[in-house]
Design brief:
Length: 39
């Protein structure tokens, strides 16, 4: 994902971590499920 968006891996990890925190989810899989349900 980072390569496709021309971002560093750490930047993408940081955004994912903050999204997990804000949505109160434990990991990327749970985050993906929450995002799918909202769209």
């Amino acid at each position: 994902m980072a390569r496709e968006l021309v971002l560093s891996v750490r930047t993408v990890e940081g955004h994912v971590d903050r999204a997990c925190f804000k949505l109160d989810v434990a990991d990327r899989d749970e985050l993906a499920n929450v995002v799918r349900k909202k769209s």
